Amino acid sequence: MNYALLTVVTAAEQTALTTVQAFKDEMGITTADEDVWIEAQINRMSAAICSYIDVPAATNGTRTLGRETLSERFRYSECKIVLARVPVSSIVSVTDFSAEIVDPAEYELDGATGFLWRLTTGTPNNRISWTTENTIVYQAGYLLPGQDGRDLPYDIEDAALSMMKSARASRTRDPLVKSLEVYDVESVSYWVGSTGSNSSGGLPPDIAAKLDPYRQIFV
């Protein structure tokens, strides 16, 4: 049985999945009149995306795709530990039940999946079961737009920008209008109520499709 306690050691320097300037460039906005609203929407959409792709919350209630250092405690009798946050960029330390630091040569990591295997010493390094209790300190998450070395997938930022475009458009249109047609000129319809199916978590299908590859499924 897996017992995990996920705590933040060093919080992410940034949590916004896009920048004010990126949205203004996308929309052709040249003034600062909407900057406060844009920044608030970036925070809101970033949180919504973390919720949709099931980023696990730490014990302080925070969850982010930004890179931060985390500590996670496990009680395991299996050969594979599954770390809560991905992608894992590095393992800081592994401490076993006796408070001994495990040699990095005695485990291997798949950073994309968060899988951490215990290995035997010597050659060959075979996978064996972890001891009953371990604490893993690791870095996980992405470098976000505006940070040096940004590696957040562009699909995720595009999803945030698309959600913000929709939010901005809804500020100026009648929320009760279901459809509008101008004969021989234009036909317009909007999402009404929930913006997507239940399977898409209420997101329009095109946005959900961008985010689905990054959803974390725990079994």
Low-confidence stretches: 191-199
Which radius of gyration do the C-alpha atoms yield?
22 Å
**Main sheet: strands, sense, barrel:** 4 strands, antiparallel
Provide the residue-averaged pLDDT: 86
Helix-strand pattern: EHHEEEEEEEHEEH
| Structural class by SSE content | alpha+beta
- Helical content band: 10-25%
Instruction: Indicate the overall shape.
Output: elongated
Supply the number of helical segments. Answer: 4
In short:
This protein has 219 residues and is α+β, with helices and mostly antiparallel strands. Helix content is 23%, strand content 23%.
Task: Walk me through this protein's architecture.
The protein has 219 residues and is an alpha+beta fold. 23% of the residues lie in helices and 23% in strands. It has four helices and ten strands, in the order E-H-H-E-E-E-E-E-E-E-H-E-E-H. It has helices at 20-27, 35-52, 154-170, 205-211; strands at 5-10, 68-74, 80-82, 88-96, 107-110, 115-119, 127-128, 134-140, 179-182, 186-189. The protein has a four-stranded antiparallel sheet, with no helix packed on it. Strands 3, 5, 6 and 7 form a four-stranded antiparallel sheet that branches. A hairpin with a 4-residue loop joins strand 5 and strand 6 (115-119). Helix 3 (154-170) runs antiparallel to helix 4. It starts with a strand and ends in an 8-residue tail after the last helix. The relative contact order is 0.18. Mean pLDDT is 86; it is low at 191-199.
